[in-house]
Amino acid sequence: MTAIRQLTTVEQWQETLRRSGDRPVLVFKHSTRCPISAGAHEALTQYAEDAGRAGQAPCEFAIVHVIEDRPVSNAIAEATGIRHESPQAILLKDGRPVWHASHWTITYDFLSEKLGKPAENPAG
Fold first, then answer.
1. Do the bridges between strand 4-6 and strand 25-30 make them parallel or antiparallel, or are there none, so unpaired?
2. Which domains does the chain have, with CATH numbers?
3. 50: exposed, middle or buried (Cβ count in 10 Å: 0-12, 13-18, 19+)
4. Residue 89 burial (CB count, 10 A)
5. Which of 14, 38, 84, 101 is most deeply buried (CB count within 10 A of its CB)?
6. What is the DSSP letter of 86?
7. Quick check: 72 and 12 in contact, CB under 8 A?
8. What pLDDT band is residue 123 in, cutting at 50, 70 and 90?
9. Which carries the bigger pLDDT value, residue 115 or residue 56?
C-alpha cells in the first residue's frame, strides 16, 4: 500500500512542497465533517492502495484535515494561489500546482484519468 502522509504543521507542508521537485505530490484537503469529503477520501484511499499494490504509485500522497489543521490548509492556499475548497485535490510538481479539483469531481475514475490507471494486481 502507498502511504498517505498527514500534514499537521506548516513545516511539513513546506517540506512536501520542496519534495515535489523530486516527485509529484497529490495533496488532499479533507473535511472530517463533510460527507462529500468522506466520499472523495475513500476514492483517494482506494486509488493509493491499488497503485501501491501494483507497485506504480505515480506520485506521493499527502492529506490535510482542514478543520483540525487550518493553518496548514491556509498555507497551501497561499503558496499555490488556489482558493480553498474541501474536499480538494491539488497535484504539485516542481513546487507548483499542475491541476486541482474539488467536491464531486474527485473520484477513483478521475484520479485514474489524471494520474494513470493502476495496473491489474499481478498476483490476481
1. unpaired
2. 4-115 (3.40.30.10)
3. buried
4. 24
5. 101
6. S
7. yes
8. very low
9. 115
